[in-house]
Write a structure and sequence with these properties.
single chain; alpha+beta; TATA-Binding Protein
């Protein structure tokens, strides 16, 4: 009877250890995602910077411009923190992991939630950049939309 109980406990502990390691994946970085507006007209550095800053802020990231073409992004959620650098120009942008706390980072792997946060940020940035042409054409005021 004791052997059977010890065997079950061993299996449970091994399963828990396996499950704990399954929560990490390779770090997701965005590399040279193209800057494309819907009207296919060139975009300015100011427009790209604004799209990136607004995207991060809307998703709860603290966005801190470091220099022309570089923004440091920090996300604080409960006991977790994540930091990434966003580099950009008028042709492409990249999001690169910098540091984290509470996300089990080790040997290029991190908790899957980090990857989801970066993927959401990437999608939001792509949406804002593609909408730059709309920002050029329309102005939203408290009184409605004004066509420029």
């Amino acid at each position: 009877m004791k052997f059977n109980l010890l065997g079950k406990i061993s299996i449970i502990l091994a399963s828990l250890a396996l499950l704990a390691s399954c929560g990490t994946l390779p770090v997701y970085n965005v590399n040279n995602s193209p800057v494309l507006s819907m009207d296919e007209k060139p975009v300015s550095m100011k427009e790209v910077k604004s799209a990136i800053l607004r995207s991060g802020i809307e998703l709860g990231w603290v966005m801190r411009p470091i220099s022309e073409g570089k923004i440091h992004a920090t996300l604080l959620l409960r006991k977790h923190s994540a930091e990434a650098d966003i580099t950009y120009d008028t042709k492409a942008y990249s999001i690169t992991y910098v540091n984290s706390s509470g996300l089990k980072y080790s040997d290029g792997k991190i908790h899957k939630n980090y990857n989801g946060w970066v993927q959401n940020l990437d999608k939001r940035i792509r949406g804002k950049i593609s909408g730059i042409s709309l920002d050029r054409s329309y102005s939203i005021t408290p009184f409605g939309v004004i066509v420029k």
